[in-house]
Amino acid sequence: MTQVLPEHMTAIAIDAPGGPEVLVPREVPVPRPGPGEVLIKVAYAGVNRPDVLQRQGNYPAPADASPLPGLEVAGSVALLGEGVTTLLPGERVCALVAGGGYAEYCIADAAQCLPVPESLPLAQAAALPEGLFTVWHNVFERGWASEGETMLVHGGTSGIGTMAILLGKLFGLTVIVTCGSPEKCERAREIGADHAIDYKAQDFVEEVARITGGRGVDLVLDMISGDYVPRNLKCLAEDGRHVTIAVLGGAKATLNMAVVMSRRYTLTGSTLRARSREFKRLLAQEIAAQVWPHVERGELRPVMDACFPLAQASEAHRRMEAGDHIGKIVLEV
Question: Enoyl reductase (ER) domain: from which residue to which, for each copy (predicted)?
Fold first, then answer.
């Protein structure tokens, strides 16, 4: 029986750039999927730092994406677009989306959807795609991390940080993280980090040298940038890789390139939202093959912080910006 879709839905819109208060519920038309797309009836939507940046006016949506915030969702397939044969109406899925997640219905590329096993609650499923796609691509594809290596991750209790810990341990890495308090360090160790450094009380460069016996780490996953970058390079072993995924501390860094040459460092980085559908489809295929079996067996679950009703998206953003959260924040639709 064909599902009857409503003409309108509740979504969270950004009326103008500003603080959390600019996130307001609005009645908007239910979108219709195009070729290769599906319409998802959203049960939960993940809240991510790029949503905050978009709300502030610093990270506009791509021209072909929904202007509504929200980059990951979980729910059920409500409608198939032309040519979609890999999914069925009613199937439980989670998906990486280019926008539009803060809504009752959301368009997703069918090839960027992953099946949600019955053992995985939809709230947790919604907390997986953004962090999983980001960490897998940057740590394992761009950063070439391999079993037995050591990785330094800044922001160890953030959504990205906790996913980096979980994936790192799942694939045989030694994981060192930095956190902003003794309590967060303890929580990071409980999640699986081998070492946690309180960057407010300790010099992370000195601590990494002590932990690694002076050798340094093979990989740095950096969300801070700015003046952290030269300090990060001091943490790297020879042939080390430095991967930047955010610039929370500033976009500009001053480096001694002679050190980069003499120690054979690789400096790289990426953003995910603006990448092509083709790229994201290939990334989804690799995650489905390499990581999703661990999800299906219950070996990978996101660290959950808080769940807010969709109408309280502004409160979810306030919690994220306060910096007290550990793991993922989601919205219940």
Answer: 18-331
- Distance (Å, rounded) from C-alpha 133 to C-alpha 254? 29
pLDDT band at 215 (very low <50, low <70, confident <90, very high): very high
Side chain identity at residue 183, one-letter code: E
CA-wise closest residue to 177 among 202, 145, 143, 144: 202
Question: Is pTM beyond 0.90 here?
Answer: yes
d(CA 244, CA 2): 46
pLDDT at 1 over 50: no
Tell me how far apart the alpha carbons of residues 262 and 259 are, in angstroms, rounded to a whole number. 5
Sign of the alpha-carbon torsion through 64, 112, 304, 220: negative
Q: Say if residues 238 and 263 touch (Cβ distance below 8 Å).
A: yes
Question: How far lies 108's CA from each of 34, 94, 111, 268, in Å?
Answer: 10, 9, 8, 28
Q: Let me know: does 113 contact 126? Beta carbons within 8 Å.
A: no
- Which domains, and CATH codes, for the chain? 8-128+273-332 (3.90.180.10), 131-269 (3.40.50.720)
Q: What percent of the chain has pLDDT over 90?
A: 95
- Give the separation between CA 248 and CA 320, rounded to whole angstroms: 14
Q: Which residues of 296-305 are buried (b: 16+ CB within 10 A; e: fewer)?
A: beeebbbbbb
Dihedral Cα 220, 159, 276, 71, nearest 10 deg? -160
Q: How far apart are CA 174 and CA 37, in angstroms?
A: 39
